[in-house]
Amino acid sequence: MPLRRAVYAGSFDPLTQGHLWMIREGARLFDELVVAIGTNPQKACTFDLPTRLSFLRASTRRIKNVRAASFENMFLIDFATRIRATHILRGVRNENDYAFERGMRNINGDLNPRITTVFLMPPRDLSEVSSSFVRGLVGPAGWERKIRKYLPAPVYEAYRARFRTSPPLQ
Hints:
This protein is of the alpha/beta class. The protein is built from 7 helices and 5 strands. The chain has helices spanning 17-29, 49-60, 76-82, 95-111, 131-137, 143-147, 153-162, and strands at residues 5-10, 32-39, 66-72, 87-91, 116-120. Strands 3-2-1-4-5 form a 5-stranded parallel beta sheet, with helices on both faces.
């Protein structure tokens, strides 16, 4: 039986508990899961790529069939083809996500019909968590307590250290 390799991609700015749920589920479903940070030169990230890769590696080090990677200046479907992925893993939290992801799945299917997109829906307690939601909580008094449950420990500690005096720019 051929290796079932999936790619789960995002900016992971920051990596959240919702992302980790997707990674754990993807690792359970596939022989290998490549978690790839895609870079978008038009998007200003809170942490640079090497730092986000280090957060990803630290947060997934105990999941044996997961590896971290990055790609830039290429479409996800081309990256998936390059690493010989059989699947693309995507999360769907709500109707808006579904509409967007369905369109992307259709285009990716046109570009490479050999790669199947798989959608996972997180449990209720994680379905509202997004990176932009977490970034939006940083700043007001008590923000550290509010974001703690949404972030893996390495990311949480980095946020605390970086934003003790001023919140990130939105």
